[in-house]
User: Fold this.
Amino acid sequence: MGRFFTRERFGRPQVLASCLLFAFLAQCLWLVGKGAAPGTVDLAEIYRLQHGIALWSGRGTEPNVDERVAPSNLEKEDFGKKSDPSSRLTLANGGYDAHHSPLWYLIAAFPLWLRPVSLHPENIRALRWSAAVPYLILGLLLGASLWYVARRLFGNAGGYVALALYCFSPGIARSSALWFAEPEVGAAWGAFGAIFTAIAVAHTLYAPREVVLWNWRRIVLLGLSLALAVGSQFSLLVVVPAALAFMLYLAPSRRLAALAIWAVGFGIALLLLYASYFFRAGAFWQGALHASFLGISGKAYAMPQAYHQVLAQLGQSSPALVVALPVALGTYFSWRRARYFGNTAPLLVALLFLGLGLGTPHYPGLGFQFVAIPFLFVFVAGIAADLLETRHREIALASIWGLLVANATWNLWELARIG
Assistant:
């Protein structure tokens, strides 16, 4: 135990990162508290919880019309004023969710399964807090992962910049607190973990030890990440070949080993997804048949509105990106020193997700755009760390500090204005 709590693991950088994460948690708790009032819960959220509880109790692995339309009965009690898109999509798809596996619902309803709360208007406050707990945890885990990756790639400066952008991102806080937003943070953490775990595994393939034994922890983590990503959003299946591409690129002389590790990780992910169907082969097969893995529309790429939507989504997710991203892109393309793998990998993945988001302008597209945000934070942090190592360090440092402080101040001000 003494070896675990070392200065290297728990030094000043870890303390500062923890403070930023506590600030992020405080913002999320503020949003959850403001949302725990009568008339503020979306019926889609009630449907998620109800279906998740049915799954935990063993009644929701097969389509059931009564369960699927049950949330509409709550409208009579003025439980919420929004429609229920989740139930409508399910009804139109033979009773199966085209975009999410049962894992998505199981995560949402896990706190209510541990500590049951009846779905009635008088319990709105307890329901709101119970519904938010899994995503608050996932939001903290994504922030910690982001800081760890950015720090390993770019040093302490890069880690701080990435985490500061993350912790004061309105879009991330809204999704983690379920503030009139879809719970996409689980999908984002799964995709982020899958890509960077694959990169980490590839870098260890040149170690002298036996490949499988040396990497077993990372292999399990790769499988967990893939399962969380694809289980939270079927269209994130694109993460699977993307992870393999990075592994093959980084280990050109160990590609057979990389392929074997990727296959084992993918197998673990399939097993976990199968487990989310409670090992019922029929339900698993039908869920796969009714899943929408990639519903891209070529016409969307010719629509100016699609590009405006992506830009608006980026601005709403993190206003700092409106300023930082153009500067980072200009620096990357004009400065050869900045074009190395640590900066290029997150940029390529972010562009992949943004491109897929353009082609799917409705629900899956919004999910792709959200998942791209953490990768953009890593990219911006890498460019910022590079600029801090030049002879113009003082100017770069002042600009970075100004941007981060202004972004945090604006975000806190907007939170304080919520009535």
